[in-house]
Amino acid sequence: MNFLSIVIAIYNEEGNVRELTERIYNSMNLLKIPFELICVIDGTDKSFEILKEMQKSRKNLILDHSPKLRGFKNAFVKGFGLANKKATHILTMDGDLNHQPEEINNLINSMQSTNADIVIGSRYLKQGRVERLALWKKAVSIFANFVIRLIWNLKVKDKTSGYRLYKKEVIDKVVPLCKSNNFAFLFEILVLSRSLRYKIKEVPIIFKARERGESKFELWKTAKGYMALMFRHFFSRKKKPIVTRYVADKRLSLILKNLKRFDKNKIKILDVGCGDRYITDKIKRRGYDIIGIDKFASKDCKWITKDPDYVMDARKLKFKDNSFDAVIALEIIEHCNCISEIKRVLKPNGLFFCSTPTPFTDWIRRMLIALKLLENQDFEGHSNIIDLRNVPMKLLKYKKMFFGTSQFGIFTKR
C-alpha cells in the first residue's frame, strides 16, 4: 500500500469530529503508511470550525465544506474526487464514531493477505459485534441484509456497512456507474463490483452506537432508495427473449450435470464467446472457477473493464496448451472456425460443451426473431455452420434442441 486516502462524509457531527480525527491520526501514525484524511462536511454546526483549527497542525487534512446538505452519495463522490493522485487505496468510515479507527489495521492486513479488491468491516461475522444500538435499528439492518441477499444472491454478511477499504481502481470504475443517492449507494457499489468480478472480503469489527449527536438515518428515504434499486434491477435491465433464455437454461442444465464428474475445487473452465456472461455467471455462482472471453464488449458486458486481457479472438486464444478442464462454446463456432484453438487449450480427457445452429434451419430462426422470441445475434454472422458430429474430438453426447434448429454436443479430447 503506497498511499491511503481516508474519506469521511460529515453532517453536523461537532461532538465527534475532534475525537474521531485524533484517533485516526494516532492509528495511522502507528501503521507508518503515508495517508491523507479527507473530510467532506455538510451542515451549519461547528464541525467545520473544529476541523479547520485542527488542520493548522495537520497538512494532510483536507476539508471541503457546504452549509447545505449534499446527500450521502454526493458527499462521498466529492471526497473521492479530492483524493491525491498518488493514492492507491481509499478507506471510508462513518463520522459518528460507529467505526473504530483502531481497527483500520485489520482491514489493511486482510487486503494484503487475500489480495481482495474490497474489504468490508462487518458487524455480522462471528467475531464482530454491535454495542448499544437501538433494537429497532439492529432489526432493520439485519432485515435489509437478509432481503438483499435473497434478491441479489450477494454473499456478504454486512452489505450496508460503510467501513470499507477499496483499491483505488474500484472507486474509479464502479462509482461512476452508481445511480443511488442515499444509503443504497453503499450496496449498489457491491452489486456493481461483483458484476465487474472484483474480489470482496470481510473482517469482523466492533460497531458502537453513537454517544453524541443525532442519527442521520431516515427509514423512509432509505427504503425508497432500496426500492428504486430493486426496480432498476428487475425492470430496467435488458431481458433475454423467452426462447433465447429457455434454450440457454436447458444447455446450462446439461453442462452442470456433466461437470459433476470433476472436483469443483480443482476444475478450471473457459467460456468462449461469453457475451453478457449469462452462462458464465450462473456457473461461477455455483462455485466453479470459470473465465469468460469474448471478442467484443457489449453494453451489458461491463465486466470487460476489469479484464481487458479477456477480450480476444477465439481463433487466437491467449492461453497455454492444456490449460482448461472444460471449455464451453455456445453459439460461437458458426461465427468463426475456432475448434482447433479450443482443442489446443483443453486438457486431455477434458470436456468440450458446444452448441451451434443445425444446418438448413435458419428460416425458423428468422421467424422467431421477427416474433421477438430470439435475439438478432442468434442469426448474425453465421458463416461456418457445420454438423457437430464432424468435430474432430470424441463425441460423448449429441442431441438436437428446440425443434431441431440447434445442435448440442459434449466432446472429450482424445
Main attributes of the structure:
alpha/beta, 6-stranded mixed beta sheet, 2 domains, Rossmann fold, 414 residues, 22% strand, 34% helix, Spore Coat Polysaccharide Biosynthesis Protein SpsA, Chain A, 12 helices
Detail the poorly predicted runs.
Answer: 297-309
Give me the number of helical elements: 12
CATH architecture classification of the largest domain: Alpha-Beta Complex
Q: Give the C-alpha Rg.
A: 26 Å
Residue fraction in strands: 15-25%
How many strands in all?
Answer: 15
Amino- and carboxy-terminal Cα gap: 47 Å
**What composes the largest sheet?**
7 strands, mixed
Shape type = elongated
Task: Provide the succession of SSEs.
Answer: EHEHEHEHEEHEHHEEHHEHEEHEHEE
Biggest sheet, strands in spatial order? Answer: 3-2-1-4-7-5-8
Give the domain tally.
Answer: 2
Assembly type of the shown chains? single chain
> For the record, what is the CATH homologous superfamily label of the largest domain?
Spore Coat Polysaccharide Biosynthesis Protein SpsA, Chain A
The pLDDT mean sits at 84
CATH topology of the largest domain: Spore Coat Polysaccharide Biosynthesis Protein SpsA, Chain A
Q: How does the helix and strand content classify structurally? A: alpha/beta
Could you estimate the helical fraction of the residues in percent? 25-40%
The top-level CATH class of the largest domain is Alpha Beta
